[in-house]
Write a structure and sequence with these properties.
The structure holds 2 protein chains of 2 kinds. Chain A is an alpha+beta fold. Among the domains of chain A are: 64 residues, Calcium-transporting ATPase, cytoplasmic transduction domain A (Distorted Sandwich); 114 residues, Calcium-transporting ATPase, cytoplasmic domain N. In chain A, the strands form 5 sheets. In chain A, strands 10-22-21-20-11-18-19 form a 7-stranded mixed sheet, sandwiched between helices. In chain A, strands 12-17-16-15-14-13 form a 6-stranded antiparallel sheet. Chain A is elongated. Chain B has one domain: Alpha-Beta Plaits (2-Layer Sandwich). Chain B has 2 helices and 4 strands. In chain B, strands 2-3-1-4 form a 4-stranded antiparallel sheet. Chain B is globular, with a radius of gyration of 11 Å. The chains are: A alpha+beta, B alpha+beta. At the A-B interface, helix 4 and helix 9 of A face helix 1 and helix 2 of B.
């Protein structure tokens, strides 16, 4: 509790004690004095504020309304009610204050990735300094257990880094000399000597914090609705209260002024829209904060809201659903060579080739090739390559090449690129090279489909390869062989479909910028450290797991549900109490509950947005 | 030009919205937002306006709406 909160609590307790004493007093005058004292004690700040408000021409603020309601109660002789309304109002405000302070703290904790200091060497001693003062190229140290303060490259030392704050991925990443490391990750083991590659303000951690903080400035439709609602709600209720106090006693025979003014006072008590005005932005902020703790950056409440209405997800294939790296899947030797020798031979033959296939062969070989062993390499356009490897003529290429050599091969029905290896007279074996589907892609698509979301894949790749991936993942539709301009045209066609709902495009953010910006919502993935992608997208997924999109949609739907609950609950309760009050069916106490009670409940409900959403 | 200010003792969400609207009404201000949860205020000025002069007006407006709230300049 802060000092202000403690002070308020003490006032509440003393006021309650005075009320008890007042009830025990037999003489009416003494009671009245005690009630008055209790009222002034608990409500003096409200009175002062509302008087100041009137001086500034701000009539309809909550303080003024409270003042009118309580003074009104005194005037019609309901002294204890007058004091109790003020007392309950203060209790409610206290609760509200504590709840908001707590949620502020939990949000701050969620985003507690800002490093406070940096270790630098000065006169042979390690001292702590302000990260803002470190320039690019400066050397600093990160001890075990500390956060990396700036983006840097390791000069000396090796360790494991916990990057969970950035990517939501809890498996530590091992780093050593020469590795680029990102600020915000936590050093788990050894001392690292690093050289800063970016200033603090430009470092990853600052960028992320800036993005999340700015996110709450972009308001969602629900938030704008609430602001507009609040704008009209309070004056409307106040006018209704005035009418209620004046008209029935004048027009209806037998109606008592005291009775109708009492009902009008209840209107005033309920007229503050605070529950809504706090809880809706709080829910969005919680949702955005919760998502960021899982490595999903949502750039605004409006995007979170749109995400919950996703009807179609369009994926890019390479780099998004698949790793985008061609790797040797397996090899099948015809017998003379071992599998390792087969790869070695192929890798050697492809030494001088820059084709992606050659790179994946060399990666699978894993050792540096000795150029001395390769001679007389020749590119056989469209078929493959031939070279003298250790003095023997080797052909590496596709089926066409084997046919030209009149060599029989084994059949391979698996998807990918099949590379055959042969001598002029003998078939040696085949190597299958393929792009790998990401491990969580299948679950991601399945979860989206379970959420009634249509999935589409766009790719520049060949029809068969694309169909194979689409089929294995269970993607609804697939458009292959698209040039970048075709992708945009295809996206526009999808956007025109009236059944599409909000269309999300998910890509790796580098080649897909035009489609990314054309879609209702652009999601860039694997964007950590890439400023351009963070700029272009509406939602940024820090690691490269497509499954995070499903998580993001789950968070957005949960948040929107809570927002809806709060709007319906708060407006519903208030309208209900207004109707009950108009018919004289509520007491002023219940009115106070309808105001502050609802606000506190709505805030507590909004706090649920902060918790990580469980797997459905 | 965009500037961010920290706010102290801003304890009513409705007041934050009122402050925001009042500031947006200033002709020198292109856009403004008051963030109740983060207790900060972002003000974007029209080209060529002087921030100090505008902030004097902003402080006045805010004092009208919520006298307790202080802007840390």
């Amino acid at each position: 509790m802060t000092r202000g909160q403690k002070k308020r609590l003490i006032r509440i307790i003393v006021c309650a004690a005075l009320l008890v004493i007042a009830y025990l007093m037999p003489q009416p005058t003494v009671r009245l004095v005690l009630f008055g004292a209790a009222y002034l004690l608990v409500g003096y700040d409200v009175i002062l504020k509302s008087l100041r408000g009137i001086a500034h021409g701000q009539v309809f603020d909550e303080n003024f309304l409270m003042l009118v309601a309580t003074v009104g109660a005194f005037l019609i002789g309901q002294y204890p009610e007058g004091v109790f309304v003020m007392l309950f109002y203060q209790i409610g405000e206290l609760f509200q204050d504590i709840a908001v302070a707590r949620s502020r703290r939990s949000i701050a904790q969620l985003m507690d990735i800002r490093p406070d200091y940096v270790n630098i060497m000065q006169d042979g001693e390690m001292i702590q300094s302000d990260p803002d003062e470190v320039a690019v190229g400066d050397v600093f140290y990160v001890k075990p257990g500390e956060k990396v303060p700036l983006d840097a490259v390791i000069l000396e030392g090796h360790s494991a880094l916990d990057m969970a704050a950035l990517t939501g991925e809890s498996v530590p990443v091992s780093v050593s000399e020469g590795t680029e490391i990102l600020s915000g990750s936590v050093n788990l083991q050894g001392l690292l000597q690093c050289r800063a590659t970016k200033e603090f303000g430009e470092s990853t951690v600052s960028k992320i914090l800036q993005l999340v903080e700015e996110a709450s400035d972009k308001k969602s439709r629900s938030e704008n609705f609430i602001t507009r609602f609040a704008h009209y709600y309070t004056p409307t209720v106040v006018i209704l209260a005035v009418l209620l106090a004046v008209i029935p006693p004048l027009l209806v025979p037998g109606a008592e002024w005291k009775d109708w003014i009492g009902r009008a006072l209840i209107f005033l008590v309920i007229s503050c829209p605070c529950a809504l005005v706090i809880s809706v932005p709080l829910s969005f902020f919680g949702g955005i904060g919760g998502a960021s703790s899982q490595g999903i950056l949502i750039k605004g409440g409006n995007y979170l809201e749109a995400l919950a209405r996703t009807g179609t997800v369009v994926f890019d294939k390479t780099g998004t659903l698949t790793r985008g790296v061609f790797r040797v899947q397996y090899c099948l030797s015809a017998g003379r060579l071992s599998n390792e020798e087969l790869i070695e031979t192929a890798a050697l033959a492809e030494t001088y080739s820059s084709h992606p296939i050659a790179q994946s062969l060399q990666q699978a070989y894993g050792k540096a090739v000795d150029p001395e062993r390769v001679k007389d390499a020749e590119d056989l356009s469209g078929r493959g390559i031939s070279a003298l490897v250790d003095g023997e003529r080797i052909y590496v290429g596709n089926r066409k090449l084997m046919d030209e050599l009149h060599l029989g091969t084994e059949a391979c029905s698996d998807m990918g690129t099949v590379v055959y290896v042969a001598t002029p007279t003998e078939y040696l074996g085949l190597i299958l090279i393929a792009d790998e589907i990401k491990p969580d892609a299948e679950d991601a698509v399945a979860e989206l489909k379970a959420g009634q979301i249509r999935t589409i894949m766009l790719t520049g790749d060949r029809e068969e390869a694309a169909q194979d991936v689409a089929h294995r993942l269970g993607i609804d539709r697939c458009y292959a062989g698209l040039l970048p301009a075709d992708k945009v045209a295809r996206m526009e066609a999808i956007l025109k479909d009236p059944d599409a709902g909000k269309v999300v495009f998910m890509g790796d953010g580098i080649n897909d910028a035009p489609v990314l910006s054309r879609a209702d919502l652009g999601v860039a993935m694997g964007a950590i450290g890439s400023d351009a992608a963070i700029e272009a997208a509406d939602i940024v997924i820090m690691n490269d797991e497509p499954g995070k999109l499903a998580t993001a949609i789950r968070i957005s739907r949960f948040t929107l549900r809570i927002v809806k609950e709060n709007i319906i609950f708060a407006i519903g309760v208030k309208v209900l109490f207004l109707i009950l009050a108009a018919f004289g069916l509520t007491t002023i106490w219940m009115g106070v509950f309808a105001d502050v009670g609802v606000a506190v409940l709505a805030i507590l409900n909004a706090l649920r947005c902060l918790k990580p959403v469980k797997e459905s | 030009m965009k500037k961010v200010f920290k706010l102290e003792d801003l304890d009513c969400a409705n007041c934050a919205a009122k402050m925001e609207n009042a500031i947006k009404g200033l002709p020198e201000v292109r856009d403004a937002s008051v963030n109740f949860l983060l207790q900060k205020m972002t003000i974007e000025l029209e080209d060529g306006e002087d921030i100090d002069a505008v902030m004097k007006k902003v402080v006045k407006l805010c004092r009208k709406v919520e006298p307790d709230c202080r802007i840390l300049l």
